[in-house]
Amino acid sequence: MATEPAGPVGLHHYYAAVGNREAKLATLLELLQALQATTNPRHLAICCSARDTLDAVVHALLQTRAFAVTAIHSDLTEKERELAITNFRRGAFGPAAAATSGSAGPPAAGGGASGPSVGSATGSLRERGGLDAGAAREVEQLPCVLATTDVCLKALPKDLLPVGVSLVVEYELPPSKELYSRRMQTLFGGGKDRRAQRCVVVDMVEAGAVGAFRALEGFAASPVLEMPVRVEDMFTARS
Q1: Which of 147, 161, 177, 216 has the highest CB neighbour count under 10 A?
Q2: pLDDT in tens, 27-55
Q3: Is 44 within a domain?
Q4: CATH code at position 42
C-alpha cells in the first residue's frame, strides 16, 4: 500500500558544493550512507554524462556493499538495459527479483560478487553470476540505486517510463535545459507525476563548475537551494 509523502509534494532542488572530483565522490557516499541510516530508505538514480564517471561511481558504491546497484551503460544490449530497468523497478516498488541484471549486493556463495564490477584494466562494467537465496534476501533489504549515463536514458522505451524514484543525484550537471528536462521526465515523470509525490534533486557542484551551475539555476524547474545538514530534511521540510 502506498504511503503519503512525508513533506510537501512536487519537485525540490538542492545542491552540494564540493572542492574537486575526489571530494565529490566522497560527498556522494556520505549522502547515500546518511539516507540509508534513515527509517525510510530511498530509491534513487545517479546521472552521469560520461562512461568513465559512471564506472568510478559504480565501483565506489560496490565497494561499500551497502546498496543494490543497477548500472545502465552502453556495453549492455537494448534487451539487457530493459531487463535491468524492469528489475530495478521491482526492487523499488515491490518484491525484488532474486537476482537482477546489473544489481550488486552481498557476496554470493563461494565469495563471488554479483552484478557489475569495474575491470581493473579497461574500467568497463561486467555482468557476473547470480545470488543464492540467502544473499538475494539480503539484497532485497538494500536501498536501490540506479546509475546511468544520459545516452542510455534517452534510449529507454516509453513503456518503461517513468522509472520512478524519489531522489535524483546529478553527479554531473546537465549542460542544457533539454538534457535536464529529459532526466526529470525519464526518472520522475511529467508534471502530474511530480505533483503526486515528493521528488528531490541534488546537484553535485565542483569548484570549477560554477558557470554551469548558474546556467542550471536559470532553467531548473524549481529554486536550487543549499542542501540541508540533515539530509532527511530534503524529504520533509517545507522548502
Answers
A1: 147
A2: 999 999 988 887 566 789 999 999 999 99
A3: yes
A4: 3.40.50.300
Range of the domain at 159: 10-76+143-235
What is the count of structural domains for the chain? 1
Locate the DSSP E strands across the chain: 10-18, 44-48, 68-72, 117-118, 125-126, 144-149, 167-170, 198-206, 224-226
- Reported as a single tens digit per residue, the pLDDT across 74-125 is 899 999 999 999 999 887 554 333 233 344 433 333 333 333 333 322 223 3
Backbone angle region of 96, left / alpha / beta, with phi > 0 → left and psi within -120 to 50 → alpha: beta
What single letter denotes the amino acid at residue 231?
V
Question: Looking at residue 39, what is its pLDDT?
Answer: 58
